[in-house]
Specification:
The complex is a heterodimer of chains A (386) and B (198). Chain A is of the alpha/beta class and 386 residues long. Chain A is built from 13 helices and 18 strands. In chain A, strand 12, helix 7 and strand 13 form a beta-alpha-beta unit. In chain A, helix 5 (170-179) packs across helix 6 and helix 5 (170-179) crosses helix 12. The longest helix of chain A is centred in the last third of the chain and has 13 residues, at 332-344. The radius of gyration of chain A is 20 Å and the shape is globular. Chain B has a single domain (4-8, 26-177), classed as 2-Layer Sandwich (Alpha-D-Glucose-1,6-Bisphosphate, Chain A, domain 4), CATH 3.30.530.20. Chain B has helices at residues 47-55, 145-154, 159-176, 191-197, and strands at residues 4-7, 35-43, 68-71, 77-84, 88-100, 104-109, 117-125, 132-140. Chain B has 198 residues and is an alpha+beta fold. Helices cover 22% and strands 31% of the residues of chain B. Chain B is built from 4 helices and 8 strands, in the order E-E-H-E-E-E-E-E-E-H-H-H. Classes of the chains: A alpha/beta (386), B alpha+beta (198). The A-B interface holds A 1, 3, 5-7, 13, 15, 17-21, 23-26, 53-57, 72, 88, 90-94, 97, 105-109, 111-112, 115, 120, 124, 133-136, 140, 144, 146-147 and B 1, 42, 44, 129-131, 156, 161, 165, 168, 171-172, 175-192.
């Protein structure tokens, strides 16, 4: 089959590789009909996530048709149409039972790598470095899906791929980030740093949850325009964000802040230099700003991906203002069904975010375009058949 | 689930307060000169299920991530054959010396073992609905003495990580019904070329 393969920093190639096969009784094989490039793939492309190996297949946002099931998979059959969550969860460990699926105990075969970096290993993730399991990803024509009896959600309607594909990651990720903000309908003001795909879904989710106002911060006009289309007020990230936020909130600051940027924020020369020199693993400019701007006793919700160790965090501000932090990879299986219902009921149409469609065979050209945000690119969907 | 591993000297053995349970207390290799390992994992299954798996010692071949053969001619005796560096095999006979159903199994190697070892596995209720705490304590005299153990540790092949890996795999097998793997999945070049050469 064809697959997009990571070949080193800023190098990806479409290669011919073997088709996946069933390796465990709870696996299934999916023939992929749609797959996307995620903002977090930028961190892999740019070489900021450790434990990548040349030859790794990328991709963790995909859906398709079940073509083979392992002997222990009873909920799926060949021919079923499914969306696959980006995290892999066993459904049986204490964390899964508590719906903390993204920190499943039993799906990361490289637990020793993850433990060395984080103390305890989070769940396996498709196509996202060996620290999270080294699983082959879904920017490919087929994928092996472990624990297929727990992860994939069946799509039993005729909604097109574009409307349900983002149940694989960015819609639940934005939603969980907004849910973490303790939104009181009609009262809570939420600020969202970053109007990329996750930020866009966080903005819309905050409104779905009843936020009184959503303020979105980004440097790119097309991304701010997309946020405004959802009803958000926007701020250019190059302006005095604190002053702007105060002016828009009667001097209080936002009740909750969402960092939908993560480890490669722009705006700080200090971090750019330190990250380039490998003196710092992450550029947490957005997170620092969010901590300072958030109202006293507010919430900082972090769906943005961080990889390692962050410099100059204003933790004194966080402590003295009594902030609450909520973060984590998304507990996908908790959100996929209810969010599918929202889509089916017409409350949201996730296809709004798609700006580019590219054949899988040209995916290596889509990466630099997306990473450099050329051609007003916000979200790329890949067609595996082409 | 931290690795606790060190070369013990009798005069520096950690003291615990009276009344506190010391998981190291039950292990002994003659002369108290061995390497001690204590590893623990919590498994969301009742103790009897975990004990039963473990009590049938050849079952452990499923969870030890290292070439090993275990045979059990009867319920209390077992023969272990483990592959060692340079294509060698290390073998010993072991005897179960304490067996408290659903709570504890303890063993030691018989006299004349190439690797003298003794150990125990405990199954104790975890707080609330967490399941069962499984704690393995092991003491052994490594082949090649302490130098061999240091080299083994440097190559991440020490008994501590072996025991821990086995416990993680045991947990996955008991809870999820399978041990996670990526072996045999598609990969691109150059991993593909490496795989082809094997």
């Amino acid at each position: 089959m064809k697959a997009l393969v990571w070949m080193g920093k800023k190098q990806v190639e479409v290669q011919r590789v073997d088709d996946p096969k069933i390796l465990r009784p709870r696996d299934c094989i999916v023939r992929i009909t749609s797959t996307a490039i995620c903002g977090s793939d930028i961190h892999l492309f740019n070489g900021y996530i450790p434990t990548m190996e040349k030859g790794d297949i990328l991709g963790h946002e995909f859906m398709g048709e079940v073509v083979e099931v392992g002997p222990m998979v009873r909920n799926l059959k060949v021919g079923d149409r499914v969306v696959v969550p980006f995290t892999i969860s066993c459904g049986k460990c204490t964390h899964c039972v508590r719906q903390q699926y993204s920190v499943c105990d039993n799906t990361n075969p490289n637990w020793h790598i993850a433990e060395a970096m984080m103390g305890f290993p989070p769940a396996g993730i498709f196509g996202y470095s060996h620290m999270t399991g080294g699983y082959a990803g879904g920017q490919a024509q087929y994928a092996r899906v472990p624990h297929a009896d727990v992860g994939p959600i069946k799509i039993e309607n005729d909604l097109p791929d574009d409307k349900v594909l983002f149940l694989s990651d960015i819609f639940p990720t934005g939603y969980m980030a907004a849910e973490a903000c303790d939104i009181v309908p009609g009262r809570t003001v939420v600020a969202v740093w970053g109007c990329g795909p996750v930020g866009q879904f966080a903005i819309r989710s905050a409104f779905l949850l009843g936020a009184a106002k959503v303020i979105a911060i980004d440097s790119l006009p097309e991304r701010r325009a997309m946020a405004e289309a959802a009803g958000a007020t926007t701020i250019h990230s190059g302006s005095d964000v604190m002053e702007e936020l105060k002016a828009m909130t009667g001097g209080r600051g936002p009740d909750a802040s969402i960092d939908a940027v993560g480890m490669e924020a722009h705006g700080s020369a200090y971090d750019q230099v330190k990250q380039t020199l490998k003196l710092e693993t992450d550029r947490p400019f957005a997170l620092r700003q969010a901590i300072l701007c958030t109202r006293k006793a507010g919430v900082v919700s972090v769906p943005g991906v961080y990889g390692g160790f962050l410099d100059k965090m204003p933790f004194g501000a966080a402590m003295n203002k009594g902030l609450t932090f909520r973060t984590g990879q998304t507990h996908m299986q908790k959100y996929m069904k209810p969010l599918l219902t929202l889509i089916e009921n017409g409350k949201i149409d996730p296809s709004f975010v798609v700006t580019h469609r590219v054949p899988l065979s040209k995916a290596h050209k889509a990466y630099p375009m997306f990473v450099e945000k050329q051609d007003k690119c916000i979200k790329v969907v890949l067609d595996p058949a082409a | 689930m931290a690795t606790a591993e060190r070369i013990s000297r009798p005069e520096t053995l950690a003291r615990t307060r009276p009344g506190t349970r010391n998981p190291r207390a039950k292990i002994a290799v003659p002369g108290n000169s061995g390497i001690k390992v204590v590893q623990a994992v919590t498994i969301r299954k009742p103790a009897p299920e975990l004990y039963s798996f473990w009590r049938d010692l050849p079952n452990l071949m499923q969870v030890i991530n290292h070439p090993v053969t275990i045979s059990a001619p009867n319920r209390d005796e077992s023969h272990w054959s483990v592959s060692a560096p340079a294509g060698k095999r290390v073998e010993w006979d072991a005897l179960i010396i304490n067996d408290r159903p659903n709570q504890l199994i303890a063993w030691r190697s018989r006299d004349g073992a190439e690797v003298q070892n003794a150990g125990s596995v405990r199954f104790e209720p975890a707080p609330g609905d967490e399941g069962t705490e499984v704690t393995v304590a092991l003491e052994y005299n490594p082949p090649g003495g302490k130098l061999g153990a240091m080299i083994a540790k440097l190559t991440r092949d020490s008994a501590g990580s072996q025991v821990y890996d086995a416990l993680r795999r045991f947990k996955a097998l008991m809870e999820a019904g399978e041990i996670p793997t990526t072996e045999g999945q598609p990969v691109g070049g150059p991993q593909r070329l490496r795989k082809g050469k094997k």
